[in-house]
Design a protein that fits this description.
By secondary structure, the chain is an alpha/beta fold. The chain contains 5 helices and 10 strands, in the order βαβαβββαβαβαβββ. The strands form 2 sheets. A 5-stranded parallel β-sheet has the order 3-2-4-1-5, covered by helices on one side. A 5-stranded mixed β-sheet has the order 6-7-10-8-9, sandwiched between helices. Strand 8 and strand 9 form a beta hairpin. Helix 4 runs parallel beside helix 5.
């Protein structure tokens, strides 16, 4: 089994990912991941949308599983098999904002991890780290901003929406006037940068 990161947006596939996808006989992925890799999928390849993530670890060895972004950043890298990384929203955000990745802590607040994501973000910011927060549309950004505003630290916030897509937009504010997400596909960069 190969778990391949297709990048966070169009044109973010690596050469290795393109090579492996173009040889695949069976591919599984989310609709978004399949769309990002569509131009590389060979004719005759069986393509299936993932319906049940719990069943992925039981797939045969010759399957390619597509993961948006990089499988090791809130992706499917936990599955057995070879992982081929993709260009993640983390990499793109730090490049766009010119922040060295060594200064950044990654916090994932997806699904049931919202409260832990908030706590981890506040703790990392207290230590002086810049936080890259990967959240989902149900994450309560306003609650996070209230918690951060209570800290005696001046903070900048970059809201990165649709990274890698034609509608990419990065808005920067501070904790007194933070940017509010208008899109479902977003991440936050929080700290002194």
């Amino acid at each position: 089994m190969k778990i391949i990161g297709v990048g966070c947006g169009p044109g973010m596939l690596t050469e290795q990912a393109i090579r492996e996808i173009s040889r695949a006989e069976i591919i599984y992925g989310s609709d978004r991941a399949i769309d990002l890799a569509r131009s590389c999928i060979p004719v005759g390849c069986m393509v299936k949308t993932i319906d049940d993530f719990k069943q992925l670890k039981n797939l045969p060895e010759n399957v390619v599983i597509l993961s948006t972004g990089d499988p090791m950043l809130a992706g499917l890298g936990y599955l057995p098999g070879e992982v081929i990384c993709g260009i993640s929203s983390f990499q793109l955000a730090t490049a766009r904002l010119k922040i060295p990745v060594s200064r950044v802590s990654v916090v994932v607040a997806h699904g049931k991890g919202h409260e832990k994501g908030m706590q981890d973000t506040v703790e990392e910011v207290k230590t002086g780290k810049i936080v890259f927060l990967l959240a989902d549309p149900k994450f309560d950004v306003q609650d996070l901003y209230k918690r951060l505003a209570a800290l005696p630290i001046p903070l900048k916030i970059a809201l990165c929406e649709n990274l890698g897509y034609p509608r990419e937009r990065i808005r920067i504010g501070d904790i007194q006037s933070p940017p509010i997400p208008a899109e479902a596909l977003y991440s936050l960069v929080i700290g002194n940068f």
